[in-house]
Design a protein that fits this description.
488 residues, Serine Threonine Protein Phosphatase 5, Tetratricopeptide repeat, 20 helices
Length: 488
């Protein structure tokens, strides 16, 4: 006998209401998706993004897409499955491996560097703790800041011990714990410590303790010789187009920046950080506790307030930059939102993009992308002359200030692009424009001083370097150059 189901009016009414609510939520989600896509498409069209994006809302992925090419020569598109070099996002994985060893009792945060690397120089290593290395407060100079490091060293492979001795053992710049200064040497040393304590390579420890437990099949230690499926090539943007990024041997970034991954794997990584699968809550609290300059262990931790929203949002994030790549992971932990931006055309405005996406997720107004005034002026300089470009700058700033990016960085970048093309007089005029627009910016005067120095005009080089030092007495590079100019 067949049963007949009867729908009573109240039940029908409830079903209709639930359906409408679901449709309403779907419509809101669609609107957010469209806004994110339009935002990133515009950044792509302005040549300011070329890569892959993932956005999760309340732990669920609502958007993932690739823009531009993973390989420009073969016109292979970027997709959510494209593997990008992460740069300094690597540091959060190193931090996790270190904290796992702390949890096991094999490392102590207040122990000295020389407790784990006994061959390290005693006079400095006895002052530096593991905590100092994790928080960029050790005082060791960063090897990537050493003069001519990229020019003379970056193509050569180095064993870990040899690299530590040669490039991570310089005299201290300040007393450990007294100041914050972002430092790749510290995280290279942490990788060396992980190897000493475990008796395994950093890559093996990473695989066993993070990648396998989380099933991160598209994440690993990048090596030039390895054949890695779906790996993006790295490019640098110039005003003439794109060029292949300079070669970098990946033994150098090591535990400070040698990993690759996809937006999808970084989503799995983000989700695992809400659990105790890798680390207990007790040690996660330590890992995410900010110290000087809001830096925790491998993460930046800060709070932001959106316009019209009373409660602040806790943001846990980190960016990365390595030859040809620029990356960013942003975790809005209040609501389990996530933004991952992986770009393979060098430095770009990922912070502005993520801020806009955060505002979209909370239905707030956001700052739209702006065209590059530098690229616009460059075309005019090449086709016409510098005087036409200066006039164009004044006109566009007066009539279209909202359309173009008139930031200090834009003109500074243009000036150095012109220097590379031996257009020194044109570069000086652009630097002068920047000084006029930003009279309190030390870097603007520093760049103008460099332009005059390259030209051979010592008098005006000294004047501008002195002005830069007045505005920023900590500009040690300007002081060295100024001392040299005065001696000559």
């Amino acid at each position: 006998m067949k049963r007949k189901f009867k729908f009573f009016p109240a039940v029908v009414f409830l079903i209709v209401i639930v359906g409408l609510l679901l449709l309403q939520d779907f419509g809101i989600a669609q609107t957010k998706i469209q806004k994110i896509d339009e935002l990133m498409t515009t950044y792509f069209n302005y040549r300011q993004f070329n890569g892959s994006v993932l956005v999760a809302e309340k732990g669920e992925v609502i958007f993932k897409k690739g823009y531009g090419f993973a390989n420009m020569e073969w016109e292979i598109p970027n997709t959510p499955g494209t593997k990008f070099r992460l740069g300094s996002i690597t540091k959060q994985f190193t931090s996790m491996l270190l904290m796992q060893l702390v949890q096991k009792g094999e490392i102590k945060l207040d122990s000295k560097l020389t407790d784990y690397l006994p061959d390290y120089r005693k006079d400095t290593g006895d002052q530096i703790t593991i905590h100092h290395l994790l928080t960029h407060t050790a005082g060791i100079p960063s090897y990537t800041s050493l003069p001519n490091f990229f020019k003379d060293v970056s193509r050569n492979p180095y064993p870990v011990d040899e690299f530590v001795k040669k490039f991570c053992s310089s005299d201290l710049e300040f007393s450990p714990g007294s100041k914050y200064k972002y430092n790749n040497s510290g995280y290279f040393l942490l990788g060396a410590i992980i190897e000493k304590v475990t008796g395994k390579t950093y890559e093996q420890v990473l695989e066993e303790n993070i990648l396998k437990p989380l099933d991160l099949k598209s994440t690993g230690y990048d090596r030039h010789a390895a054949v890695i499926n779906n790996r993006a090539a790295g490019y640098e943007k110039t005003f003439d187009g794109f060029v292949n990024a300079a070669y970098l041997d990946m033994t150098l970034p090591y535990a400070a920046g040698a990993l690759y991954s996809t937006v999808g794997d970084l989503y799995l990584w983000d989700q695992a950080l809400y659990t105790e699968k890798l680390l207990s809550q007790e040690y996660k609290i330590k890992m995410f506790s900010p110290f000087l300059k809001n830096y925790a262990y491998g993460w930046g931790v800060r709070k932001i307030t959106l316009k019209g929203k009373a409660d602040s949002l806790k943001i846990i994030s980190h960016g990365g930059g390595i030859n040809g790549f620029n990356t960013l992971i942003v975790r809005v932990v209040n609501d389990k939102h996530l933004i991952v931006l992986l770009n393979n055309t060098g430095g770009t405005k990922l912070g502005k993009m993520s801020n806009a996406i955060i505002n979209i997720l909370y239905d707030k107004p956001f700052e739209p992308p702006k065209e590059s005034i530098a690229e616009t002026l460059f075309k005019t300089i090449i086709k016409k002359d510098i005087d036409s470009a200066v006039q164009q700058y004044q006109t566009l700033k007066k009539l279209h200030s909202a359309k173009y990016d008139f930031s200090e960085r834009e003109l500074n970048n243009l000036g150095y692009q012109l220097i590379q093309r031996k257009k020194i007089n044109e570069a000086i005029e652009i630097f002068k424009l920047n000084v006029e627009a930003y009279p309190e910016a030390a870097n603007a005067y520093d760049s103008l001083g460099e332009g005059y120095m390259i030209k051979g005009d010592k008098k005006f080089a000294i004047i501008n370097y002195e002005k830069s030092l007045q505005l920023n007495p900590n500009n040690s590079d300007a002081k060295k150059i100024l001392d040299g100019l005065k001696k000559k």
